[in-house]
Amino acid sequence: MTAGVLASIDPSVLAEGVNLMWVAVVCFLIFFMHAGFAMLEAGQVRAKNVANQLTKNLLTWSVGVLVYFLVGFGIEGVAGGGGFSSAAALGDGAWVNSWLFGAVFAMTAATIVSGAVAGRAKLRAYVAYTIAISAVIYPVVAGITWGGGFLGGAGLGFTDFAGGMIVHGVGGIAGLTAAYVLGPRMDRYAEDGSTNVIPGHSMTFAVLGTLVLAFGWYGFNVGTTATVFSVTDAGELALGGYASVGRVSLATTLGMAAGGVGAALASVYATKKVDTLYVANGLLAGLVGVTGIANLVTWWGAILVALVCGLQLPLVFEFASDRMKIDDVCAVFPVHGSAGVIGVLALPFVHINGFSTSLLVSQVIGVAVITVWTVAATAAVFGAFKAVGQARVTPEHERDGLDVSEHGVETYPEFGKPTVSTDGGTVAAGDASSPDGSPRADGGEEDGTEIKMVTAIVRPDKLGAIKQALAEVKAPSLTVTNVSGRGSQPAKTGQWRGEEFTVDLHQKVKVDVVVADIPADEVAEAIRGAAETGEPGDGKVFILPVEDALQVRTGATGPEAV
């Protein structure tokens, strides 16, 4: 019975249905990469710019996909040698395997740029560039290559399987160009030309975003084997592009692993430490390196290419940052740009059919043409905005953060607010100093008693013990503030993407206690005893005279107000 049912199915209908379903699922996976980009980039910027970065990622898709539908898809056809063909004129199936499949790749190229210009680009300038790359810049590259243009297989023979150069290379090169035109963030470089490190606010976000991207990358690479089935001339089902799915899956998996290892090795060589962000970025660089060659690369070639892409990461980033003085915030060029170039140029050397001189020539010319076009078009757009003073925010807005200046929001509205421990401060039952067993703040002061303030700067983890000690000397009322500063505690060395920076402002809590009848020296000694560890950085206690006090609720003054 089953055989009879199968025999009655038109193979072409079955092939089309399965292929459409496969491409649709792949597009959904690639779309999910935008969540990875958002988290990765948000983690690498400062807390005051997180909402701005997230907004740019949201608008990249929202604005870009509309522009690609209305204009970019048609321009891609023109660049490929045909006429302007509107995406609106496509049929149901073509909207999936033609327009949507192209759109998710176009939006990937567009969103890469946002990480390079983080922290200083005006939103209007970035959105304008998103329109430009979605309408013209990327569609032209896709048209002259995948779309049948002069660089593609029917012309020069430039080969890029899933967009190592066409998508990621374009995004990385555009990001570097835009960062150069905009100029570096404030305080990125000192007056003597030395580089100041500006760490991002969340390594957790950066790493989680990396893993989300790696997951979506299976859709990016494996999904490019877009046809599961094809129908032979004899009317039989056969594997289409899916015939190479094993090789593509293997290259993708080996690539991400080797890229991470390469970046880790380079980090250890440069700094004697395994830098977490370099490993994360290296994993992505390895993926980019194999993206353009995954269907034709040998297994050892995939490992070698990705390893090189990981190893080059710190070298290229430091060259662009320290030598060229280009402030590429999220390292989009070494991750996407140079890694994409390395991958497609390496194909002739790691091809399953052996070395080919003609392929090498095609790859070099293709990379050169795409690079020149991307640099020129990107520089023109950002250069035009810079010429009219609309490319980057004002110094005041940059200093305050783009979250507030561009969007009027704070990503972390409670960031920096004091978090006070609730432990400590208890009193033994039956204490006679108060009817309910708790000591009074004023302790039953006597007329004429001096008011003094005891101020202590101590380690945050000692707050609970200090509260307990103050309660025991009948002075439980206190004010706590989170502060940072420096004293005898030695500075520490931190590291962000392989660059060292000095942490000489240490996190402390400031405890203020105002007393009237309780001897201030007893309060100070109680704090000292509870805060002491014996190590530099325990803090200091100060005793200051208070001229007067006024209680808001009752209007009482002097010691009575305390």
What does this structure look like?
This protein is an alpha+beta fold and 562 residues long. The protein is built from 16 helices and eight strands. The strands form three sheets. Strands 4-7-3-8 form a four-stranded antiparallel β-sheet, covered by helices on one side. Strand 5 and strand 6 (499-503) form a beta hairpin. It is elongated, with a radius of gyration of 31 Å. Mean pLDDT is 89; it is low at 416-448.
The unreliable regions are 416-448
- The total beta strand count reads 8
Strand content is: 5-15%
Oligomer: single chain
What's the SSE pattern? HHHHHHHEEHHHHHHHEHEEEEHE
Range of helix content: 40-55%
Rounded Rg: 31 Å
Strand order of the largest sheet: 4-7-3-8
How far from one another are the termini? 93 Å
* Main sheet makeup: 4 strands, antiparallel
Total of DSSP H or I helical runs spanning 4+ residues:
16
- Category from helices, strands and their pairing: alpha+beta
Shape: elongated
Mean pLDDT: 89
